[in-house]
Amino acid sequence: MRTYLASAAETCDCAVAAVHEEGRGAAFGAAAKALDKAAGGALQRAFSSGAALPKVGDALLLHTPKPVVMVGAGKKSAGLSDGDYRKIIAAAAGALRKTSAANAAFYLDELAVKGRSSEWKARAAVGVVESEFYRFDELKSKPQPPGHRIKSIAWIVPSAARRKLAANGLQEGGALAEGANLARDLGNLPGNVCTPAYLADRALQMRRSHGLQVTVLEEERMAALKMGALLSVSRGSREPAKLIVLKYNGARDPKAPPAVLVGKGLTFDAGGISLKPAANMEDMKYDMCGGASVFGALAAGARMQIKLNVVGVIPSSENLPDGAANKPGDIVTSMSGRTIEILNTDAEGRLILCDALTYAARFKPAVVVDIATLTGACVVALGAPASGLFSNNQKLAAQLIKSGDAAGDRAWQLPLWDDYARQLDSPFADIANIGGRGAGAVTAACFLAKFTGDFRWAHLDIAGTAWGGAPRKLASGRPVPLLVQFLRDCAQGALRDFF
Ligand code: BES
Ligand code: MN
Ligand code: ZN
Question: Who's near 449: CB < 8 A, 6+ residues apart?
Fold first, then answer.
């Protein structure tokens, strides 16, 4: 989808404008007034002759005869919340899907969103529209009935002063949507297509497409590095593990300490010998969504030419039962030298991540953020609205929360106290890989925390946020928006003391 900025009426197939409530009547903003005038009063007539005023999140399609989507925008004086603004954009996109318009003019810069700029409004709108129109049909053998796609959007900003901001927002929104769609596409691919080798190939393509430096470590190299935890997981699978490293150097100083993103790339998680139940096991193709979000964040960051050095590390493997697979009670030695008693082979994410975290230290990171569909317990705790956030540094945690809020991709912090870490004590090894019944998301994070050396680190558990959302059950592209906003905020001086 192409987006472009315009100052006034465009020759588009369709227009989108807001209608507010006032008393019991319809109150038009400046744009709707102008459209109404051009249509000889047809919009006003529709409401005065009984059309119901759309509420926030609803839209009304009118024909003047040109189609006009009127989106409900609540009381004008109130000022919208971020969430209401996104609902309004989603309603507009939903209504557009029902038209045959190839291009649409959005007259929504005039909406007042509390504390948000024209840049923010344009960026958020592109993200929401792209996600509303997202489809995944590359594996259907026949072309699908043309689920309507919009080709371009004209974003109308009458004020010259705001136009520069909005133009920036559109551009960033486009880059962000590209990254989120990459993460969605990789997530939606099935486990027989999206294997560790497939992810490694896709990474190598990003040299040309995004100018990234890409390295793929094979199992021999991992063995030489003594990554015994990661390799123990892939031993039960016929697909060799890959450790993918993506580098983007955008900082003025190429040696400036990078932000390192570590993403779980488990391309299918059957649980191993601690086999999962059959119901919904197909969802475990999504167990690489953390890794996919690292691909997406680097793609978007490179597209935006973010002034920051960023390294992505993606340990990728399958987790299957086989004669060579990990067995409950096995003890493996991680790259850090710590021994791990594997009490449940289904707690494999932390096994591949712990070696990737140890490996991350070599980049002398300013911060390390890992992203993983790590625990069912996190889904129970927070559901789909928020990713679980854990950190050994409160400034880093606060910034991630703030960036997530701005991006409409929220995270909520949970504790990392020693009281929980004790649940991981093992009589046989340095640490056990599970911590018993209580607080599963926390003990998983406590496990990872043991492998973070002395670097600043945060962990995002995206088990509840990476996919789902009835009825489509597709990958969400989260937390690409949070990560990209975070990188951008860091590039603009947030966490200045760290970089
Ligand atoms: N990939 C799963 C976590 C998961 C489960 C994500 C459901 C999304 C939905 C992870 O590898 C796993 O199996 N975790 C176990 C840990 C347990 C054995 C301590 C879990 O959550 O059940
Ligand atoms: Mn598992
Ligand atoms: Zn898993």
Answer: 390, 392, 416, 421, 457, 459
Query: Which residues fall within 8 angstroms of residue 418, CB to CB, at 6 or more apart?
Result: none
Q: Omega of the bond prior to 54 within 30 degrees of 0, cis?
A: no
Query: 287 CA distance to ligand 1 centroid (A)?
Result: 9
Query: Residue 246 has what DSSP assignment?
Result: E
CA distance 433 to 446: 10
| Centroid of ligand 3 to alpha carbon of 361 (angstroms) | 23
Note the pLDDT of residue 22: 86
Q: What is the pLDDT of residue 146?
A: 61
pTM: predicted TM-score of the whole model, two decimal places: 0.98
Q: Which ranges of the chain have pLDDT less than 70?
A: 9, 146-147, 471
Q: Is 348 in the pocket of ligand 1 (CB under 6 A)?
A: yes
According to the 3-state scheme, what is the secondary structure of 451-476?
CCCCCCEEEEECCCCCEECCCCCEEC
106-119 residue pLDDT tens = 999 999 999 999 99
Ligand 1, closest atom to CA 464?
Answer: 8
- Residue 326: the pLDDT is 98
- Alpha-carbon distances of 397 from 356, 373, 391, rounded to whole Å: 21, 19, 6
Computed from CA positions of residues 80, 81, 84, 90, in that sequence, does the dihedral angle turn out positive or negative?
positive
| Per-residue confidence (pLDDT) for residue 210, from 0 to 100 | 98
Task: Answer left, alpha or beta for residue 367, where phi above 0 means left and psi between -120 and 50 means alpha.
Answer: beta
Helix, strand, or coil (residue 312): strand
Atom of ligand 1 nearest to the CA of 378: 21
pLDDT of res. 471: 66
Q: By the 8 A CB rule, do 28 and 36 touch? A: yes
pLDDT given for residue 78 in this prediction? 79
Q: Which residues are known to be catalytic? A: 276, 350
Q: Which atom of ligand 1 is nearest to the CA of 284?
A: 1
Tell me the per-residue pLDDT of 270-307, one tens digit each, with 9 for 90 and over. Answer: 999 999 999 999 999 999 999 999 999 999 999 999 99
Pocket test of ligand 1: the residue of 317, 318, 346 to mutate, having most ligand atoms within 8 Å of its CB, is 346
Entry field: residues in the chain = 499
373 lines ligand 1 (CB under 6 A): yes
What is the predicted pLDDT for the residue at 142? 86
The C-alpha atoms of residue 379 and residue 283 are separated, in whole angstroms, by 13
Specify the DSSP class assigned to residue 56. B
